[in-house]
Amino acid sequence: MERLFKVTAIIMLLTSMSIKAQQDKNPNVFLITLDGVRWQDVFTGMDTNLLNSDYTENKELLTSKFMGSSLEENRKLLMPFFWNTIAKEGQLHGNRTKGSKVDLTNKMLFSYPGYNEILTGKADDENIDSNDKNYNKNSTILETANMSNGYKGKVAAFGSWDVFPFIINDKRSGVPVNAGYMDASGDLNEKEKFLNEIQRQAPIVWESVRLDVFTHHFAKEYVKKNHPKLVYISYGETDDFAHGGLFDFYMKSLQNTDALIADLWSFVQNDPIYKDNTYFIITTDHGRGEGIEEGSKWTGHGSDVKGAEHTWLAILGPDVKAIGEVSNGQLYTNQIAPTVAKILNLKIDAEVMPGNPLELN
């Protein structure tokens, strides 16, 4: 009897290991958003009109950091990971000067509707017309994955903005969400305990949006411990600095966010579970004004701001055709969630997510 018990235990262990190994072979996706970052900033670098406007406090410093001898050099100085890595190994869509367009399908053109469209694959102007903390009635791709057999308990979300528990509907979806000034919970390592301790000791610039460095490291520590298969990370500083008319901080924050994404990619490519089996899909929830004149102010966005519907998209991963900066073509934000579903081999209802998945290879 004892021998039979031991044999049974060994079989169960081997079966468990086999299932885990198979799960680890399934692709991983990191969906990342940068709040309110314009396509112009990504593809053309620092805006000289804004540099020379009242929105800039230290023109000399920004010039020394972000101005080179060409447009290509300028954008590389601002976002080196995008232009040294993604442009060589992945795809960048949304440079409208080259005929590549990425647009929202929602008509609100601000954050909650934008994130809903990214995460659910469908605009919902009828029900989502504010940034209020209302639980989303729509199911996100995070929820869809978490309800599936292959990805249940392997989904997590992190955001700087404190509305994300409502957008993702953490109560219904079961997706763990750490956003705003929420502490990490559960069996914490020393770094997570330290982050909990210091995130409110650092300057609190906005009560509803914490500094991105905390969001990043909460996410990274969780990923290192738990190796989720689908991770959503939303960096938020850029939009709030822009709303405040702080062009200096907006530029520095955008460069810093690029570095945080680079740090995450470096970790992924050096982790045996994630290496060569992980996709990064990076985008924004909305555009913003194109200039300094009333009606097109860079500080704002929304249905009354020209250009706020224009966004961009970056993709990096094992089966992504390395075509770099794309010329010509029209993509829409509602295609992102179906693309995640396709990568993860999740079955979705075309009526629920009507956008077509992107052709990655």
Automatic annotation (TrEMBL):
InterPro entries: Alkaline_phosphatase_core_sf (IPR017850), Metalloenzyme (IPR006124). Pfam families: Metalloenzyme. One of its GO terms (molecular function) is metal ion binding. Residues 221-347 form the Metalloenzyme domain. This is Phosphoglycerate mutase.
